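Write out this protein's structure.
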Amino acid sequence: MASFVAALALLASLAGTGTSDPKPTGSPSAPGYQPIGRDEQGVWAEADEDERELKTSKMVIRDSAVNAYLRHVLCRAVGESSCASVRLYLVRAPISNASMAPNGVLQIYSGLLLRVRDEAELAAIVGHEFTHFENRHGLAGLRKQRSMTNWGSWLTVASFTTGQPRNYTPGFIAGYYAYTRNQEREADLGGLHRMSGAGYRPMAASAIWMRMREEKDAQASALHVKSLKDADYGPFASHPMDVERMAYLAREGQTLEAGATDFDGVDEYRTGIAPIWPMLIDDQIKLNDFGGSEYVLQTLARGTWTGPLLYARAELYRARGKGADQLTAEALYRQAAVLPDAPATTWRGLGLVLMREGRTTEGRAALATYLARVPEASDRAVLQAMADGN
């Protein structure tokens, strides 16, 4: 036992070597802020390198109107002075996610914009990410992981001196993930308070996670498998479960409802993302996730099917192409075509469905209508040949 204690003391002293890095002070979002100490300078340098690649990436959506709108929501949620240091990038990736680096780079993935229903929900998400940045969670996580990994390794080595070797590392790593889950809760609640303080409806933050669970149900149903919405993520999960987040955000949101506004910005949000909406829909359908995509469209419609939503739903059925899907797509295209906001691509989809069904005369007429409406169509040569019967 004495040898174990002596070895542990020695290893503890070694584990602590080089951990005197100064604790950063001040707000990282403050104008002209510079990282303090080797650790923070290191994570910033790594994030700066990632940003250099991001600046020239073809995956970044550079629509000026959409980016200006997203920045408007961010600045309203976190304050004009704080948002000035944030560089926002909209990345074309059909997944529901956002992230923020320690140096103030905020990435919003395009798939998230299809799942957010209004400005209030978007404000909760960007407020969440900004809380990670402002509270230096990236730096704290790095130090915590290094400390726990070192201690787990040292204790494992020390246990050999007792003749009873034991691997302590997994337990310490699990403790690290519990730490990151606490950071996520802190960011969730920080985002909620920021968006509520900015005048947004507090309960919007909880609604996001309820729909995440419902989408998982829809995906599982379409695949005829069990939904994983309530599956235990286990000790190595870095985020709380969706149901937990939904619940504690609703509890905290209820305390903020008194005196809060009910502004959610539904119309503002739809207008803000309108320039890239067709691209968002097209990317979602290409995921080949019929159940999830159908759920997304249903919740976007909220019982009122616009021309663009009917067109999107028709595209979804045409892409799957099982059983009666082609006839369903035809009906949906035709329902969209009579509405004033029907996209020109409605006639393209209708023409392709009709041609596939062998109704060539009707199909050619629909394709000709599309080409007349979109003379600069990228696939004009192919569709023109089909419309001409070549």
